[in-house]
Amino acid sequence: MEVCDASISESPLLGGGEDMVEGMVDYKGRRVIRSKSGGWRSASFIIGVEMAERFAYYGIASNLISYLTGPLRQSTATAAANVNAWSGAASMFPLLGAFVADAYLGRFRTILFSSLLYVLGLGLLTVSAILPSPSFPHNQNTKDHRSCLQFQIILFFVSLYLVAIAQGGHKPCVQAFGADQFDGRNPDECKSKSSFFNWWYFGFSGSSFISLLILNYIQDNFNWVLGFGIPCISMVAALVVFLLGRKTYRYSSKQDNSNPFLRIAQVFVAAARNWRTTPSTAAVVKEEEARILLPRHGTYQFKCRFLDKALAMVSSDQYGSDENWKMCSISQVEEAKVVLSLVPIWATCLIYAVVFAQSSTFFTKQGLTMERSITPGFEIPPATLQSFISIAIVVFIPIYDRIIVPIARAYTGKPSGITMLQRIGTGMFLSLISMVVAAIVEKERLKVARDSGLVDMPQVTLPMSVWWLVPQYVLFGVSDVFTMVGLQEFFYDQVPNGLRSMGLSLYLSIFGIGNFLSSFLISVIEKATSRGGQDSWFANNLNRAHLDWFYWLLAGLSVIELILYLYFAKSYIYNRVSAI
């Protein structure tokens, strides 16, 4: 959110009185007229692209554990670890994609090349599903079978990680490119930009819901070739829609050609090299200017004072001619402090991401053991239960945007009703509650298994309705409306302008690290609780497992995380006045 104020200076006008958008050009490199470019028209194309891409992505990710434990015959713990590792990688690759976009290719080209790679990865994934299953009964011990099995597994995982790399370039750039279609210096477009993040997530979740509803059913009841092939077709459609809007988009003019990553890196290097340097009079003056100017732009005031050493002036013969790596401008130091100030908020959201990872792994396996019949002969695919997250989001976002925000705005006077950090914290609290609910429901499921004498019959459906799981999914969805959207807006808004793709990739990396942490926790707990031949918390027979204890552990970690988050959020100073 930029400063949404009618007092903002007018945008430059052409001689004919046409309103121009500063710093943006059209597809031919010409300055753009506000009324003829960008805005909701362009954003609609980009939201459409995101919907098609998310349909494809969740068609793979949501039911991946079923493919690994089914056709590939992996154990529950191994499959969960592989899902978390892949999901983590998929959430970390945006750091690479954002770097390439912000430093070299630009967002449009990065999206274009990532889309082509996406189609390739999904196409190969479909081919891997065409190959004979590792579990086919004939000649399983032959050399040909072993070679076929090895080739299929290699092709599957190579294809899977190609998809992860492709979405790493696609994900942060599409959202940042969409937000770029609104000029934060224009009061009307500034308000639209804030709503853009809400409606972006609305489209995102609606598409995910359709994917869960349709593709999971196809994968569980027909075959995996269709289940992987349809996402490939969807990604081709996303590429077509993206190119259709090419002439309406606003593109960054890149008036500042310096590499934003190098600019920030120079600050840290210069501060380290000047650590023991006695500043000259000029340097003292420069540091004093920084103390006056930098607080106006935010950050945790001077808890990053060591970076002021980057302002120190020393003689040029001390380090040679590499001037940029021993002395930086005030604006460079400001950018570095802004980025560094995001780290505590980033770190205190990691447990939220660990909790988030459970919806596509253990929640799905729980649903598989429960009564899922709606009508005789028709059962809900367990992965489709994740659609309740999307339903909750699709229902709650309009309520939040059209009812809660205006009411909150009337009381607080803030354009967004509540601050971004308040929004994030609210979602984290709801996430904690969802883990408590999940632990209670799982304890009840285990009780039903014992009372029914089905503890050692994991293939028999328990006489307990799968609808017991719905509350925890709904709580996940509502918490996402607060935390997910809040994180997206926060990391887009609070980074320097040249690093906005990187800002969104930092948001995504929370969930990458969270998935890795989840995988690490599972591995450690699996090893610790299976000693002496006893059943682990994650035993293949879930009737003898203790997922309820795992959920209580996550709830406890969430309490600690929330306390730390509130401490850092309270002392955070926003980088832009309107975000307060």
UniProtKB/TrEMBL annotation:
<keyword id="KW-1133">Transmembrane helix</keyword>
<keyword id="KW-0812">Transmembrane</keyword>
<dbReference type="GO" id="GO:0071916">
    <property type="term" value="F:dipeptide transmembrane transporter activity"/>
</dbReference>
<keyword id="KW-0813">Transport</keyword>
<dbReference type="InterPro" id="IPR000109">
    <property type="entry name" value="POT_fam"/>
</dbReference>
<feature type="transmembrane region" description="Helical">
    <location>
        <begin position="383"/>
        <end position="400"/>
    </location>
</feature>
<keyword id="KW-0597">Phosphoprotein</keyword>
<feature type="transmembrane region" description="Helical">
    <location>
        <begin position="421"/>
        <end position="441"/>
    </location>
</feature>
<feature type="transmembrane region" description="Helical">
    <location>
        <begin position="112"/>
        <end position="131"/>
    </location>
</feature>
<dbReference type="InterPro" id="IPR044739">
    <property type="entry name" value="NRT1/PTR"/>
</dbReference>
<dbReference type="Pfam" id="PF00854">
    <property type="entry name" value="PTR2"/>
</dbReference>
<feature type="transmembrane region" description="Helical">
    <location>
        <begin position="151"/>
        <end position="169"/>
    </location>
</feature>
<feature type="transmembrane region" description="Helical">
    <location>
        <begin position="504"/>
        <end position="525"/>
    </location>
</feature>
<dbReference type="InterPro" id="IPR018456">
    <property type="entry name" value="PTR2_symporter_CS"/>
</dbReference>
<feature type="transmembrane region" description="Helical">
    <location>
        <begin position="339"/>
        <end position="363"/>
    </location>
</feature>
<protein>
    <recommendedName>
        <fullName>Protein NRT1/ PTR FAMILY 5.10-like</fullName>
    </recommendedName>
</protein>
<comment type="similarity">
    <text>Belongs to the major facilitator superfamily. Proton-dependent oligopeptide transporter (POT/PTR) (TC 2.A.17) family.</text>
</comment>
<keyword id="KW-0472">Membrane</keyword>
<feature type="transmembrane region" description="Helical">
    <location>
        <begin position="549"/>
        <end position="568"/>
    </location>
</feature>
<dbReference type="GO" id="GO:0009705">
    <property type="term" value="C:plant-type vacuole membrane"/>
</dbReference>
<dbReference type="InterPro" id="IPR036259">
    <property type="entry name" value="MFS_trans_sf"/>
</dbReference>
<feature type="transmembrane region" description="Helical">
    <location>
        <begin position="224"/>
        <end position="245"/>
    </location>
</feature>
<dbReference type="GO" id="GO:0042937">
    <property type="term" value="F:tripeptide transmembrane transporter activity"/>
</dbReference>
<feature type="transmembrane region" description="Helical">
    <location>
        <begin position="199"/>
        <end position="218"/>
    </location>
</feature>
<dbReference type="GO" id="GO:0080054">
    <property type="term" value="F:low-affinity nitrate transmembrane transporter activity"/>
</dbReference>
